[in-house]
Amino acid sequence: MSPAAGEVALVTGAGSGIGAATAVELADRGAAVALLDRSAEGAASTAARIRERDGTAVVVAADVTDDGAVARAVETAERELGPLSTVVAAAGVEMPGTVAEISLEDWHLALDVNLTGVFLTARHTVPRLVEHGGGAFTAVSSDVGFRGSEGEIAYSAAKHGVVGLVRCLAIDHGRQGVRANAVCPGFVATPMADRLLGTDGDRSAYERTIPLGRFAQPQQIAKVIAHLCSQEASHTNGMVYIADGGASAGFFTGEAPASGP
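Given the sequence above, the corresponding structure tokens read:
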């Protein structure tokens, strides 16, 4: 990945998982990064990783469901680092349950964080990208953002919404120089996966559904996001990039051995 001299990036959900890995990846390629997370401690940990690698990072703690907090965080990011050119919406939460099981509170929380959080991030950054002459907005959806999944009705509904939101951003703002894309990971070895599947259980049943035979690492998804934000993807707009190890490619028996890099 070529250096991005002068790039200023804002990453939500930067305190852990894919968001943290993306922030580090963007900083490694030369971007100054604003780390937005509701956990100031988590964002500070990511900032320390970036600074240890001689990168530039500032913490702008905020809850992505709070309109005013997101607006203030974006203002702080630009005041501290300069005009934004890259935005990554990676904040997310999973609230499992069927329509009969999930509480109304958990339904609202899932949509508020996973969908409204992306909307508010776009609401307060896309106009700035337009004002600055263009840039890239990339949102993290999910493999359940284009297909359903057992017991994940709220999460899947929200992630489907992210795909629709990004496609509309691409149409509405492409001629203004803003590219909008979505990344749809499958299983990724993150704290969210640990909470969902547990840390001690046998994950082989899930791994057998993936032709590559393993979960992705956060850094692998981060590299996809960094590519979509870069000039190497300068004509990529409205793209839904599936990074699930082939799980959605078609029927798979799970018999094939895992191999390859």
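Strands lie at 8-12, 32-36, 56-59, 86-89, 135-140, 178-185, 240-243. Try to locate this feature in the token string yourself.
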